[in-house]
Amino acid sequence: MANNDWQEFLFIKGAVFTNGTISSFGNTEKELAYAHTDNIICDLSHLDLLEISGDDALAFLQGQVTNDVKLLSDNHAHYTGYCSPKGRLLALFLAFKFNKKLHLQLNHKLAEPIAKRLKMYVMRSKVHINNISDNTVSVGLSGNDAPQLLSSFFTQIPQHAYETSHTDGATLIRLSGALPRFEIVGQTEMIKTIWQTLKTSCKPVGKPCWEWLEIQAGIPDIVVTTQEEFVPQMVNLDCLGAINFKKGCYTGQEIVARTHYLGKVKRRTQLAHIATSTPPQAGNDVTNQNNDAVGKIVRSAPAPSGGYDVLAEVRLEALAEGTVFWNNLALQIQPLPYSFDATTH
User: Fold this and answer.
1) Are 195 and 254 in contact (CB under 8 A)?
2) Beta strand pairing call for 40-43 and 203-205
3) H-type helices in the chain, by residue range?
4) Please, which residues bridge with residue 302 across strands?
5) pLDDT of residue 248
6) Which domains can be identified in the chain, with CATH numbers?
7) Is 174 helix (H, G, I), strand (E, B) or coil?
8) Using CA atoms, how far apart are residues 147 and 291, in angstroms rounded to an integer?
9) Three-state secondary structure call for residue 224
10) How many CB atoms lie within 10 A of CB 77?
11) In this structure, are residues 8 and 137 in contact, taking their beta carbons and an 8 Å threshold?
12) Are 215 and 310 in contact (CB under 8 A)?
């Protein structure tokens, strides 16, 4: 869904739109450099927001997703996966409470079909599922000065990843990242005021910059071309605290739990750099030296130093045997900001 009022506001501010999303504010190369070191602000309209409300909303969602929805609170958000009955990911949500209701943020192009699928399972439950992206705005903020800048609007600034705080008309979510990183979700007029104030201290940047920051934080995404390609552990959702192994049944739970308890995670998502001027696409094959497919590109963004940084799901055995490739170009594996041995719940 498009928030035309917000898009017009950004267009006046110099936003360059490509296929309905903001590709830049005039110079992607400079903006990527800003994202690496400076304070930046970014529109997140490439993400949609589903509102889940009604007396049975909590119980309904608990039976649909990989994480424990009961752990969501006014000061805690989390990632959670949505799987097919075969345990393959259909979507990845950032779940949080906003205006005292449950919300699921996801890739814009998946929002309509996922909402339709969720509604199929509501049946007689008292649950309402609405896409509120036409009257709600999300923006991202990153940089060393971000906490101080946000203190003008929020009395409490979250200190740890996925902590949240609220003010009239907006919610603030702390995200993971090397630099302090936040998302602000709120009503259009409120976010306009915040943007107008912060633009004097923050460089406005396009979607590629935020994608790069997400990749550096090791956050995967599910898009149309990668639906049903991955069991949650293949894209490291267990390392991100996005799977709760104690919560009970949900769609696909048997496969996800079996992978965990039998210790059969043979494929993981890696952070890598590719020296190319051609954008790798999510769903592209990753191959070994014999040109056998051993994985897939999960997420891709131009890197500040040139080339592309990617998250790539790869068979661990193939990595142990040597270099893996995309389009015959080597993936230069980089360290992730978390361990595959991270404690899961």
Assistant:
1) no
2) parallel
3) 4-12, 28-37, 57-62, 108-120, 146-150, 188-198, 207-216, 253-261, 316-321
4) 308
5) 87
6) 4-45+134-216 (3.30.1360.120), 266-334 (2.40.30.110)
7) strand
8) 47
9) helix
10) 25
11) no
12) yes
Return the percent helix, strand and coil in the chain, to nearest 5: 25, 30, 40
Per-residue pLDDT, 1: 53
Q: What pLDDT is recorded for position 263?
A: 73
In which residue are the tokens 């400076």 written?
Answer: 38
Q: What's the chain's length in residues?
A: 345
Give the pair of three-digit tokens for residue 72. Answer: 């969501």
Residues of the chain with pLDDT under 50: 343-344
Tell me the CA distances in angstroms from 328 to 276, 319, 323, 324, one per residue in order. Answer: 11, 15, 11, 9
Q: Supply the pLDDT for residue 2.
A: 66
- Per DSSP, the residues of 285-334 read EEE-TT--EEEEEEEEEE-TTSSEEEEEEEEHHHHHHS--EETTEE-EEE
Reduced to 3 states, what is the DSSP secondary structure of residue 149? helix
- Would you state the pLDDT for residue 223? 98
| Contact between residue 46 and residue 140 where contact means Cβ atoms under 8 Å apart | no
Token code pair at residue 159: 């200190």
Question: Tell me, what's the pLDDT at 215?
Answer: 98
pTM beyond 0.85:
yes
Q: Is residue 50 within 8 Å of residue 64, measured between CB atoms?
A: no
Q: Give me the pLDDT at residue 343, please.
A: 46
